[in-house]
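Appendix B. Raw example, untouched.
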Amino acid sequence: MSTTRVGPATARLVGAGASARNTARHGAQATAVRFQSQTPAKPATDRAAELAQRVAPSMLERGEAAKKPIRRGGMMPLDAVPAGAIYGKGQYTPEQQAVIDQKVFNNVDGERHDDGRYAQFREEASKFIPKERIITDAVRTFAYGTDASFYRLIPNTVIKVHNEEEVQQVVRLASKLEAPVTFRAAGTSLSGQAVTDSILVKLNHAGRNWRNVQITDEGRKITVEPGMIGGEVNRLLAAYQRRNKLPTQYKIGPDPASIDSCMIGGIVSNNSSGMCCGVAQNTYHTVADMRIMFADGTVLDTSSEESRASFLQTHAHLCEGISAIAQEVQSDEDLVALINKKYSIKCTTGYAINSLVDFPVDDPIEIIKHIIVGSEGTLGFVSQVTFNTVVEHPYKRSAFILFPDMHQGGQATAALRRTFIDDECCVDAVEIFDRKALAEAEKSEDMCRLTPGLVGCPPTSAGLLVECRGSDIEHLERRIEAAKEALRNSGTSCLVNDAWTAQEAAATGEPEQLRARGAHCVPTAFDQFPFQVDPKDSNVFWDMRKGLIPKVGAQRTRGTSMLIEDVACSVESLADMTLDLADMFQRNGYEDASIFGHAMEGNMHLVFSQGFRNADDLEQYSNMMQEMCEIVAEKYNGSLKGEHGTGRNVAPYVEMEWGPKANAIMWKVKKLFDPQNILNPGVLMNEDPDVHRKALKPSPLANDIVDACIECGFCESNCPSRDASLTPRQRITVWREINRLSREIKLPDAEMGPMPRDEVKRRLDELTNDYQYLGMETCAVDGMCQEKCPVGINTGALIKALRTEAEAADETTMGKTGRSAANWLAANMTAFDAHVPKVLDIVSGFHTLLGTSTQGTIATLLHKAAPKGTLPLWTPYLPQGQKALPEVEVLYTTAERNKYKDMCTFHEVKERSHSPAPVAAPTPVRDDVKERPKLYKQCREVVYLPSCVTRVMGPAKGDTEQGNVHEHLLSLLKKGGVQKVSYVSEVNSQCCGLMFASRGAGEAAKASIEALEPALLAASDNGRIPILCDTSPCLKHLKDNITDPRLKLSLFEPLDFVHTFLKDNLVFEKKKSSVAVHVPCSSKKMKLEPIFESLVGQCADEVHFSGIPCCGMAGDRGMRYPEISRDGSLQHLDLPDDVTDGYSSSRTCECALSTKADVHFRSVVYLLDECASPAKKDVITK
């Protein structure tokens, strides 16, 4: 038997069975307090045999298919994945199915079979929770079985709760029936703490539910509910400071990389820290008060003296119990010393037992308040929390420095950490990148531009991202200079690039000696990597760091899962531990593993890919986990979880890290708070030594568009349908399962898993049928998920592709008729323009005749009676028919065009010619303004493309502004000095094809764009004359789908055009007091938000942005499926009462916003035209 040394008195037995692993892991006999409902520990010799029964059978394969594929970095080609090796087996073994059939309930993962308690729970819960919020269907329960970790447990029931009272009733009912519950906010946890096969209590964020906020003491304190996203809280604090003109801005202490996706509930439950906050400003140290709900439903408000006093009386047993445990700990000097040492670095392994040391034994409320932090929902539910905020310094600069190796980077970090100025560390954050992480940075043009020597740096290289902050420029400069001096004196060498070497050699006359002496001998060497003055450049570094986990994970072998471990040690040991871990990965076959993280805190993230397709994959993972825990916990006395929470991932290793005494204390805490073991059982503390390798979540192939997805959940907060049906992450994970089942059912009987073929078919049919509505029909395909995804996955593109495939493959009469109708309409848009306004006017006439209430009732009945998704739901803000387009010149003579060409062209002068050279092939062109060629300030000629939407939809009945958008746009152009306006030829027959593409009518969409593109080229003189489209989504669709790059640069939406060409010719007056603005998702994707803010800000005293990523209208989809906007995207729209008008740049978006806000939204062109006047009298030429 071979051994490998990993540290003093620690040896890993390679190839040993589970018995040896358990002996090494636990040492002496466990002293944990056991629950009767848990399975008694089995002898170690039974572990291997037990594995076949207890591990999800989807991990076990047979025969040749069970052979582990060759591991390699990057994406494995589809044809290189061994047949039958992709997540291909059913959920239960025959033995497990037999237990299910007996309906025996055992409170451990995989054995919580329904013995009647769940049916009773749903029946009784329906008395206080509407049935539509009690979820049991196959699609959504499977979807909620996924969080950001690599575990999957499918909940028996998902229940969406709106407030604390509902949670209280749910918890009391669960306690009565002994039905375990797990609480979930955003589901971005990484260790398996937000999934369950029992009852999942999901915070439902409709309206203001779980989103109430109160800021006090000039921002020094903020009270929030668990449904608020962390980044939202910081933005509210920043807005509060600006609105009240306060001298100091504050933020919450924790700053995890997922702060724009994770919610306060998870931040508190996992004791989140992050990149800059370290230990001192983590959740534990910045919590002031909270409302805590316990297992019996009692609520303690620690900010209320009355609540404290009452709780001390009614729950004396709990208060006395926690005081007794604290007394036991404080009486043990060795245990106190261990706790203090452990929490001097980041540590979220087990419970926050530092609370048993930090507070006196006679103050049980304070102990309870702090031990709840990081307890992962196993001790109680936090319904409200008050943070002591921390100062957000307004001045920041960051540098990205390359080092030859990890040791040099670690030594530099230690030097920075021990350098103080003004009684504080000279730097606020130091993040370290290994070479694999630098490879991701190399893919960013901006990173390469700002980091000399990054491209092609040596394989041992490491990078440090260093940030300094200051209360003013002088303070910031002092700290930066101190940091530079610390680096110069650290004895380290930064990575010297050839350009710097040549420059320095020319100055010193020592070309040969420079590299030999080492860069640390040359004081100016670190000047290659300056602290960036421009915040945009610093943000390049931090955006890369925040997205690094998903970016690295996206490069994994296809069909495998991304795993992330989160370890910490002293900064002095950081480099050595990192190199030991890198060696461990290499020896265990993890060639794609990347190690990076919070160097200043000694906290490293280990990201690697792992297949869960067969027994060999499972054994590989188990061996790696065992050795990793020994290296971190035993050799370096570190933390197995620095900030991501224990979850199921390292629950079996809590005793290895803490020892038997501390482990026993934690079990006492769990039993004291949750004697029935109903609060997230199995998480954080677990007696099963193999729980970390059960319920593992494989990643089956589904579609090239989304196969790189790691299911992190960053996308979810941008999704308009997130609370109405499914989120992007959920659409992907369910589609993966549908594909897995589709492959399995085609296998011969001998190769199928234990799930019978008819059961596979039943489940596949159930998922497929439900997915049609939940996954396909209610997706807005707006692509805003891509904006939050660090690897740029557009789930909307997947759904569009699936719709197109389904449409093309539908050979039913209805399918053929639908295709024919779409193709006919694409070829006859003139009829659309002629008849739709008449229909809208008829509907408006009935509104006048019947009144709002009667018409609303009739419309609702008709909408419900019609086949789902076929009849739009009428609202009082449905537009009237649009008037005909105003007359303008349609065609110019060559002489006229030449006369004005120099005044309106916007390509470089050297590119001008009447007959441009042909373009060999279209090239991708980014659609943000800064990528366009140099622009002229004035443009006297423009081609106007009114969208088909604005051609048919006019103002809404009751709107005080009854003019049409075309008239106002032409007026604005005239004020800005534009002298010639022409429509595209046959303008009433033109369409960009967006309405066809979003429905999956690919043939009609293609025909539309193919007809429009040559017309645009002809009208714009091959792209020399700018083209103005009045509707942002149509403009974005054009940019994405036309093939000629000259047109991509020529296309503008209204605000972009005004900002680019007219702003110097116009003067704006603030004629509005308080207005609302919604930037459509298409404009957000084109990076036009700053232009909206700039121009609208010149027209109104107060501008309130909607804060909505996407309204969910998606053309008319939001009318046909109103729940997308009503229950999803617009539920958080909350405008001040003094808002009188709303503005956007998409007519259908304006309809949805008007309906929700009860304020007329119209095109922003109306506002600009009303408030603009010519800058000079001679601008307009008659």
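End of appendix B.
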